[in-house]
Amino acid sequence: MTDQPRTSDSIRFVLNGKPVALAVRPDTTALDVIRNHAGLTGTKEGCAEGDCGACTVLLRRGEGPRQAANACIMTAAQLDGTELTTVEGLKQDGVLTPVQDAMASNGSSQCGFCTPGIVMALTGLLEKAADPEEEAIHDALAGNLCRCTGYRPIVEAAKTAAKAGVAAPSAAGLPEKQTEVSCGGSVLHQPETLDQLTALRAAYPDAVLLAGGTDLGVARADYHSDWDRIISTAQVGELRAIGETADAWTFGAAVTWEEILQAVRADYPSLATLIRRFGSTQIRAMGTVGGNIGTASPIGDGPPALIALGATITLASKAGGARTLPLEDFFLDYRKTELKPDEVIVSVTVPRPKAGEEFRVYKLSKRYDQDISTVCGAFWLATEGGKVTACRLAYGGMAAIPKRAKAMENKLLDRPLDRGSVSEAIEALSEDFSPLSDWRGSAAYRKKTAAALLHRLARDLAGEIVEVMAL
Ligand SMILES: Cc1cc2nc3c(=O)[nH]c(=O)nc-3n(C[C@H](O)[C@H](O)[C@H](O)COP(=O)(O)OP(=O)(O)OC[C@H]3O[C@@H](n4cnc5c(N)ncnc54)[C@H](O)[C@@H]3O)c2cc1C
Ligand code: FES
Ligand code: FES
Q1: Is domain 98-164 in CATH 3.80.30.20, yes or no?
Q2: Taking the domains of the chain in order of start, what are their residue ranges?
Q3: What's the fold here for domain 7-87+172-232?
């Protein structure tokens, strides 16, 4: 990192092993860059909203392995300084890779539209896990839809390729990221420190503050609005850091869900299971905790879990410095938060579990994978002598904001978690929530399932339910 600004009129990255500098607006979608600027049409567009996986590419950002990501909801801004591989870049010396070969010879492709995306998703998996469990193969494919072949031959192809062995190619030297790229009337800022970020935020409060782009990119994919100024958080050291003590983790706002999954897996298996159901591999590789909180969706999966865990959030601005508040106080009203126009989310601090505490989170969605919640219930309890001494129950999908159920909590305190206390807590649900009906679920469905989730907690903690935990 240098203090000298590095400015450019082009996005510089490594494309299929070769350094390129493309003079494109930073808000051009990566899919557009690949297909229309680089002329590589193997990467397909299906849904243009991150759901089908037809546009899957492999992206290397920094030192880690190549990761599957959706090009349709990514922008050129996110390519600068990275290594991008499209399906055209897989073959070496004209020889198919084991994944391509297995897909072709196992009858794993029919119309072929989904095939490049599936090849990229499986390559991303097998470069990280040489001999994955079948469950991991399904997980890697959760973000890829195939309308005609069916998944069994695709899963078989993955197993065949794993047996043949998939070697991860060594990283190409990444071009240095530019601190500013300006092209065609769109300007990208890539600050590296929190001070630089807050200074830019103060100077340009209306700029698009871009993290992983998995929310913002969906709106951008249809080009209905331009991003004339973008401030990326992806290079900011403080926002990319993960701090760990015996008592808590502090996740920088630009830490991805995949990184959080790895950090919390052992301590909070239930949280890990929730994160495993967060979008798809492609979405978790790019989507960040700060973006999930910043977007302030009432059905976002991170906030109810983090509120129940007693997380705090740190915000910062150039004028006001840093401030930390309980995450539950951050959300004010529908998509309204404590964040001031010149502020950014710096980090989220999540307590680690202590003896006598239990945490469970249950997500109800129309599909198990790759779907946001209809209702999400997150429950943290401390017990002593068989009685609940403290608790935080938080729900998503039940109000305009993710919110604690304080009336319900009161019914559980100083009592055992049993049929009686749970029934009384459920009777108090209407004091906490008046949910809306929408296409995901009616108000009646939401109330009924929110109650059922509390029953499930009691049965789960009594050992009557075997939770399916994350891989
Ligand atoms: C196919 C698909 C599946 C999805 N599945 C799920 C799911 O299962 N559960 C779920 O909860 N969500 C899901 N999402 C939504 C999305 O992936 C998450 O909300 C993700 O965490 C957003 O993070 P991001 O980094 O991509 O945010 P971005 O899109 O980059 O930003 C989102 C918002 O947060 C703001 N923001 C980002 N960083 C900061 C910061 N440091 N300070 C202040 N504001 C900031 C941005 O300005 C923007 O307003 C899905 C999205 C897609 C496309
Ligand atoms: S085109 Fe469907 S995920 Fe990108
Ligand atoms: S082979 Fe046709 S969509 Fe998968």
Answers
A1: no
A2: 7-87+172-232, 98-164, 237-351, 357-461
A3: Ubiquitin-like (UB roll) (3.10.20)
- Ligand minimally distant from the alpha carbon of residue 34: 2
Whether domain 237-351 has CATH 3.30.465.10: the reply is yes
**Per-residue pLDDT reduced to its tens digit, 35-79:** 999 999 999 999 999 999 999 999 999 888 899 999 999 999 999
Q: Of all atoms in ligand 3, which is nearest to the CA of residue 109?
A: 1
Full DSSP string of 313-326: EEEEETTTEEEEEE
**Test site for ligand 3: of 113, 118, 152, most ligand atoms within 8 A of the Cβ:** 113
- Output the ligand 3 site: residues, CB below 6 A: 109-115, 146-149
User: For residue 123, which amino acid is it?
Assistant: T
Nearest to 324 by CA among 336, 333, 337, 311: 311
d(CA 12, CA 79): 8
Which among 111, 119, 151 is the best mutation to test ligand 3's pocket, defined by most ligand atoms within 8 Å of the CB?
A: 111
- What is the CATH topology of the domain spanning 357-461? Enolase-like; domain 1 (3.30.390)
Q: What is the pLDDT of residues 321-366, one digit of tens each?
A: 999 999 999 999 999 999 999 999 999 999 999 999 999 999 999 8
Distance in angstroms (rounded) separating the CA atoms of residues 427 and 163: 55
- Using the structure block, give the residue that is written with the tokens 């994160």: 275
Cα angle: 333, vertex 390, 384; to 5 degrees:
165
Distance CA 156, CA 151 (A): 9
CA of residue 403 relative to chain centroid, distance: 21
How far, in Å, is the centroid of ligand 3 from the Cα of 151?
10
